[in-house]
Amino acid sequence: MGRHGLREPAAPAARASSRPTRRHSGAPEHRARLRTLARVGVGVGLPLNVLVVVVQSAEGFFVVVAGQVLLIALAAPLLTVGLAAGGVLLYERRRAPWLEAAGRLALNNYLTQSLVFSAVFYSYGLGLFGRVGAATGVGLALALFAVQLVVSRWWLARFGAGPVERVLRLATHGGRR
């Protein structure tokens, strides 16, 4: 204890020698919980999201409002938790190493998607908003992501970090690291 009855902070050497642990994600009891969350989240959340789309395509104010409430309150959070738990399980087992490069360039890929699809869908570009169906939109998104998976891996092999990630690191760490 310090002179005012407060606990003294650990010495810098002690802090530097402590290693981070995989206390939460690696334990078997957490894997079982993650599997349950993934199964329930995707198993219930995905059909509910499909139901929301069907309900919202119907006519009537009450039906649309009911669809929005269902989406906000139940369907989207369930699917989000399920996908997140499934992602953690995939990452732990290294079942999706092809996603690692895209994850390391996440900000760069997000900004690229925003720029490409704003140019595709808004009037200053191709103006395709409202002219293509949902299936075409999903197909375009998957095609762009497939290209980004290949380019991300190539980019990291050559440069080690994305351009936006480098600027962000420079801005936050000031060139240290």
From TrEMBL:
Keywords: Membrane, Transmembrane, Transmembrane helix
Biased composition (Low complexity): 8-19
Domain of life of the organism encoding this protein: Bacteria
Keyword Endoplasmic reticulum: no
Region described as Disordered: 1-30
Xref: InterPro entries: Bact_Transport_Assoc, DUF418
Transmembrane segments: 37-55, 61-90, 110-129, 135-156
Boundaries of every DUF418 domain copy: 28-174
Pfam families linked to this entry: DUF418 (PF04235)
Descriptive protein name: DUF418 domain-containing protein
Organism: Dactylosporangium cerinum
